[in-house]
What we know:
Chain A is about 65% helix and about 10% strand. By secondary structure, chain A is an alpha/beta fold. Chain A has a 5-stranded mixed β-sheet with strand order 2-1-3-4-5. In chain B, α3 packs across α4, α5 (about 140-150) runs parallel beside α6 and α8 (about 220-230) packs across α9 (about 235-245). At the A-B interface, α8 of A face α2 and β6 of B.
Amino acid sequence: MTVKTLAVFRKEVIDTLRDGRSIFAIFVFPFLLYPAMLLFISWMHMKEAEEAKALEVRVGVVGGATLPFLADSLAAISGVTPVPLDAPPASMENAGVNAVLVVPAGILESIARGDSARVQLLYKEADNKSSAAAGRVEPILDQVREALTVSWAQSHGAHTDAPPRLVVEMKDISLKSETGRYVAALLIPFLLMIMVAAGAMQTAIDATAGEKERSTLETLLATSASRTEILLGKCAAVLAAAITGAVTGVTGLWFTFAVVAKAFPTMSSPFELTIGPDKLIWLFLTLVPTAVFLTAVLVAIGCFARSMREGQTYATYVYMVATFLGLGSLGQQTPPLSRFFIPLLNTALLQREILTNSVQMLHAVAAVGVTTAAAAFMLTIAVRLFSNESVLFRT
Amino acid sequence: MIEVQKLLKTFHDRKRGEVAAVQDVSFVCQPGKVFGLLGRNGAGKTTTLRMLATILVPTSGTAKVAGHDIIQEPAAVRRAIGYLSGETKLYDRLTGRELLEYFGALASMGSSAIAARIEELRGPFGLSDFLDKRVGKMSTGMKQRLSISRVVFHDPQVLIFDEPTAGLDVIGARAVLSLIQDLKKKGRTVIYSTHIMTEAERICDEIAIIERGRILAQGTVGSLLQRANQNSLEDVFVEVVGSVDSDR
């Protein structure tokens, strides 16, 4: 490093350190934002666990008479109602159960003869409630395994050197399409959030702080267009960029799964990602208020920022917050209504419901209503900031 | 016509509190005349012109531009003016044509009127060479011709020039001054700020010397010279501004 390089480095450091807002953005904000994010994620995780615990599930038991302790053990698990069944149902939904434990008839005789035997816990990973039921019942499988082993040992006396192969397993019986829907519900709302925020970020800061920095704003403000007209025009451009980002992203996902994966059979996927046009339309419609909200937030930041650098720093934090709230779609349980009052998170959750055919009208109204109100509020803030004289002179 | 009445503009400064950038400024600028605001950097010229262009709102006082009050009818004022500042720049990513179309649309011109106006200005401003070139790829001279085209594009009655020759070479500055003289001949009202005495002497019909936000002297070039008993505007300026400096 030469003396001149060091001199440049020193000047840039001084320049940065004398910018109070940069100091706040770089050194203070992370100590506020990251702990807040960690607390939020921990809170989400804790709530998920609590909700999973509180879930009431029904577990079908086929062949329960063979292992009499099963009914008592299942009934002892909080929130689990054992339902005796004669045979594995064709449809768990129609049978009114969330998971089915299948103990084949004559299993004790089979293992006494040294034959292999299979006890299965049938559930659907793609179904939150079914998955929770399986998780709740899983510890019982050890008891089953132990009981069968004892039964086999008793039928052969204490001395044996070749125990039969006992398979006590959990089996995911979700259809490929169901798994695809589940994966889509986990990923697509989150990805859409990232794509909208990323699409809006650059354009918003460039059209506001960038215009000021490039010394073109004064000329624009001297035209007969009102500040509101100018700002709304800029917002429309940012919104177009945000929506384009989301549409391009979804198209890319569709291309990957519908075209590329099919063109290369060796890349066979464990799920089928099929989203009908009706769902795409609903995804788009629910995304628009969120895109307007993010647009307004980023444009307001651009109007407030003294430079592009400052604007981009703040915008990066907005992007991170949007990403973390978008992670809300990765949850497992049906969220409470209160979560639909948090902008961004509510859209991710609503889109998850759309993709899993589990939309609750109250959730939809709360999510769209709150986001629209928040977008209108932020647009008002952006207009006020842009109408303020300091939009031109704050440097 | 521009009629300015007791304009006051204060800004809040954390250390100094309320600071007056412009105070008690009044003058009249007639159509077909060029009114010059002469002052040092930071004297209050730009703040005055920004208030006339409705970019800033006066703290008190008002002005009428082309018959419209700057506080009551800012949109009508902006429709009537063309504003050019030496500090402002053009959009590098647009072509010359796109830029003129943009500002034409902002001036509420229809697409056919915009196309016709571009054709009208093409010859006099020599736009043909670069009309479809991106601004970022243009030479300084091209940008300057495009800037001037933009200012007169919607044929405003009043033109506000804030140090328009700043950063220009001799040829570029001369082109701007020539444009101003043409506008004056066409009966437009022109207000022009500068700190270059020779420019002011050359094109202004009336001059106001402004210092620390106040107009210290006002009149035609001849009357100012006579009053101060000096031979050049520069000497008048130094004497007027110097008297304030010595009062501090």
